[in-house]
Amino acid sequence: MDYINAFWVGGLICAFCQILLEKTKMMPGRIMVLLVCSGAVLSFLNLYDPFADYAKAGASVPLLGFGHLLYQGVKEAVDKQGFIGLFTGGLRAGAAGTSGALIFGYLASLVFKPKMKD
């Protein structure tokens, strides 16, 4: 059942984003920012954890999880370091995932020889 819930929730989120792309003049970057901010807001309202417990990867994969991660990192850093935690918490929390994406993206470009789009 976990797979089914992840599939339909993740699909619903992606379908919503596709509708935004096609029916509005929003650019993909703005939709990605909307997803990240939505994850942070859901985390702030303590709604993300129950949502993620139900949807599993369907909630965390489409950028909502990144917003949640950033919010939790900032919240933890502010509790420990005070005001300076606003600037360091999100960077520290998201560093491993961002570094992994950059490293594996670079390795994939070495293996698959990307070409410029015409």
Write up what this structure looks like:
The chain is built from six helices and no strands. It has 118 residues and is mainly α. The model has no long low-confidence stretch (mean pLDDT 90). The chain has helices at residues 2-23, 28-44, 48-55, 57-60, 64-81, 85-112. The longest helix has 28 residues, at 85-112. The chain has one domain (2-112). The chain is globular, with a radius of gyration of 17 Å. Keywords: Membrane, Transmembrane, Transmembrane helix. This is SpoVA/SpoVAEb family sporulation membrane protein. The chain crosses the membrane at residues 6-24, 31-48, 83-108. InterPro entries: SpoVA.
Précis, in short:
With 118 residues, the protein is mostly helical.
